Amino acid sequence: MKKLLKLRGFYLFLGLAGGSFGSYLTLLLKQGGLDSGRIGMLMATGTLIAICIQPLWGVISDRYNQARLVLILSVAVPAVLAVFYQSEYFIVLLVVYTLSTIFSSTQAPIADSYAIVAANKAGSTYGSIRMMLSIGAAVGAYAGSQYVSHFSVSTIWVPFLLLSSVAVVFALTLPKQAEENRMMSQSFSKGIKTLLGNKIFLAFLGGSFLVNQTMTAFGTYFVLAFQSVGGSTSHAGIALFIASFTNFPSMLYASKVIKKLGRERTLLLGALIYVLRWGIQFAFPTPGVMIGVQVLHGLSFGLFYVAAVEYVSHITLPEMQATGQSVFNIVFSGFAGILGNLLNGILLREGGVWLMNLSCMLSSALGVLLIFYVSRSTRKRILIPVASERASL
């Protein structure tokens, strides 16, 4: 029980820090002279380098039994480096973002490894722990908008550093390594080869990629897009608060939805709501609609993400759990982030919000088709080679 409280505290302050800073980073970069195209290039390059480095974190975390140390560094280093985003030199911004992403990219797999094990031991659910990140992000996003409205955006790193420091304190109270962590029990390359040899898993990854690349239009460019149609920074904070807060019920009740519909149908439902949210914004690109449509965020991202994590955990063997989650994270957050930051940044610059939302709607629709294939294959009981007998579809 104490570990659950510690993890919830960690996720809460991680969300507060990220929500108060991440959504306004593009505003800070734009103030420094970058347009959305160059911002996308900067973020895509940093993410690509981080993906190449990510397997090394698995070695440090598991072979050297240093999960807690890696988790602490993943929070502390980006927080300290944030002050340098005020630089007017593109190369400095690129180095800072790249280093920050290299460290922060390991947060999700490491923290989730603690959360999943702790939840199982306590008879709780992963979603009930992960929802604290959404609550923190909701409050942090709104607080960040108020901070930017009353103070200079160039000092947004101050609350980010303070809140991240509290998250580090919580991380220091966690065990050195998550119990029953079987990461890196086989070679990373062999695990990837095994996973990618399955066409259903590939379809799942493809659908996740197409769906989540649209999220950079929200996570990276929402404030810029909102301002481009006449919205204010303060109202953007309200929209971000609504989006993050709707993750709270989604994360809390995701397990019940999954039990009723199944993992694959829950994935399909989440993907369909992605199409709906982008379709509404494409048809009505106004500040009021862009605020109101955020009530769909939890039903789209929240349901999809929890179902996806549980889907990967279900279909992979115990000794391949970390490899499966790492591959999913690389595609879902890494490659999708690269394409999304590049594509949506260019579309926003060249065609405005209308063109970016159209692209996101079409990409989500293609993702729905691939997830539908995964769901249909499950109903036909096609067995997945990477699964054990208990996890056969």
Automatic annotation (TrEMBL):
Main location: membrane
Keyword Endoplasmic reticulum tagged: no
GO cellular component: plasma membrane
Regions that span the bilayer: 9-27, 39-60, 67-85, 91-117, 129-148, 154-174, 200-224, 236-254, 266-284, 296-315, 327-348, 354-374
PANTHER family reported for this sequence: 3-PHENYLPROPIONIC ACID TRANSPORTER-RELATED, BLL5896 PROTEIN
Bilayer disposition of the protein: Multi-pass membrane protein
Localisation per UniProt entry: Cell inner membrane
A Pfam family recorded for this sequence: MFS_1_like
InterPro entries: MFS_assoc_dom, MFS_dom, MFS_trans_sf
Keyword Transmembrane helix in annotation: yes
Domain of life per record: Bacteria
Segments forming domain Major facilitator superfamily (MFS) profile: 200-393
Protein name: Maltose permease
Species name: Paenibacillus riograndensis
UniProt entry keywords in alphabetical sequence: Cell inner membrane, Cell membrane, Membrane, Transmembrane, Transmembrane helix, Transport
Molecular function GO terms recorded: lactose binding; lactose:proton symporter activity
